[in-house]
Request: fold
Amino acid sequence: MESFFSLIQSRRSARKFKTDKVSSEMQKQLLQAALLSPASKRSNPWEFIAVDDLEMLRKLSESKPHGAAFLAKAPFAIVVVADPEKSDVWVEDTSIASLYIQLAAEDLGLGSCWIQIHKREHESGIMASEYVKKMLNIPSQYEVESVIAIGHKEVERNGAELSDLLYERLHTGEFGKPYTFK
Reply:
């Protein structure tokens, strides 16, 4: 296990995966990480659907015209959904859960990439969320936030260089007053 800082510095989105399956033990750890994510007032509005069926992954890759095609070559994905009636901040709660899944994947040496579904359209004009709900038999009251594609990285990418960070976006005390490290 890496330190948290090393983990976030090294994590990069992966859109190309080896054909190797994600082991059931790794799937279990990824799903446990999702369940460990915090939620407002512990409402836990999220639910998670593990998908390792290659044909279903191909169908899900067609959920929107841009930014999902690579899912067809991923060996595993977790679809992150929520019941909006359980929390008015379900988008935030599912976003945090999605990130927990991605950080857990990196910690396990896997690659991942977030596919935004909420507020995106399918090429037919219906919402991508409706398309995914139909594919996975998700009840109508639920919303789909994201699909996290996961697999063994085909290519390792370098982590972020600390010297390239957007330090000008740091402020102290008030907006516009640059933060300076001491």
User: Anything to note?
Assistant: The first strand starts at residue 46 and ends at 51.
